[in-house]
Design goal:
The protein is an alpha/beta fold and about 260 residues long.
Length: about 260
């Protein structure tokens, strides 16, 4: 299927590895010019080279990278100094650390909200009016399945990402929808990334079980019988960014292998 976005310009955050890289790769393969951002310069440059070397990348698709912390004013300024207007923005920042809410002080909460709620809002604010003026725009926020089914050790993430979810629900239903701009959240369940390694380790320490046992137990509880892959996640993201998803806005798209047990 031709997604109809060849030649568009995309900003993909947290794209040096994991789900962010999966999204960038899927977009590049559709002929999108992608600017990838992450804090680690070495890993980010390696990711950019990998994307450019991808045999499925159309020759016309360009890849640029900016090593910056997108959660800071300076980091966002560095990105917009390279390019100001984007047709597609995929927001993504590392999730807050797991733990017990009794141990988190105000600074921990502010840091979580700043990275996982306020940063996406700043990126949306900086780009949606230009998208609306051009008649096309796609915002995809990588959040978490925890906004549907909170995870006890991820209280910081539960709170901050739920705040973003509420904000997007309102903005997506403004006149932007009639101007060709959609805003959706993509909620990953358990994917085989560095993030799952962190949460598995935390769960193992809390339960007294081994990391291997926790991985087996978690995968057995997923109807699909396994963790997801970044490639699968990227394909969903690319569809949400496509011309074919123009009638989807303000949605929370859950990708979790069937793990969420609810009807709604």
């Amino acid at each position: 299927m031709d997604l109809g976005i060849s030649g568009k310009h995309a900003l993909v955050c947290g794209a040096s590895k994991g789900l962010g890289f999966g999204c960038a790769q899927a977009l590049v393969r559709e002929g999108v010019h992608v600017l990838i951002v992450a804090r680690g310069a070495e890993a980010l440059e390696a990711a950019a080279h990998k994307l450019m070397a991808d045999s499925a990348r159309p020759a016309s698709a360009n890849v640029q990278f900016v090593a910056a912390d997108i959660t800071t004013v300076e980091g966002r300024a560095a990105v917009f100094a390279v390019r100001r207007e984007f047709d597609i923005v995929v927001t993504n920042a590392g999730g807050p650390p797991p733990g017990d809410f009794r141990d988190w002080d105000r600074d921990a909460w502010i840091k979580a909200v700043d990275a996982n709620m306020l940063t996406p809002i700043e990126l949306i604010k900086a780009t949606v009016d230009g998208m609306a003026a051009r008649g096309f725009g796609r915002i995809v926020n990588i959040t978490s399945s925890s906004v549907k089914a909170p995870i006890d050790i991820l209280g910081l993430s539960n709170g901050a990402r739920s705040g973003l979810t509420g904000f997007v629900a309102g903005v997506a239903r403004t006149k932007l929808a009639a101007q060709g701009v959609t805003l959706n959240n993509l909620l990953p369940g358990k994917f085989d990334t560095d993030r799952i390694a962190v949460t598995v380790r935390a769960t193992a320490e809390k339960s007294g079980k081994s990391v291997e046992d926790i991985r087996r137990l978690q995968q057995a509880q997923i109807p699909a019988g396994r963790y997801g892959t970044p490639d699968e996640f990227g394909a969903i993201c690319a569809f949400l960014c496509s011309m074919h998803a123009a009638y989807m806005t303000g949605q929370n798209v859950l990708a979790d292998g069937g793990a969420y047990p609810g009807t709604f």
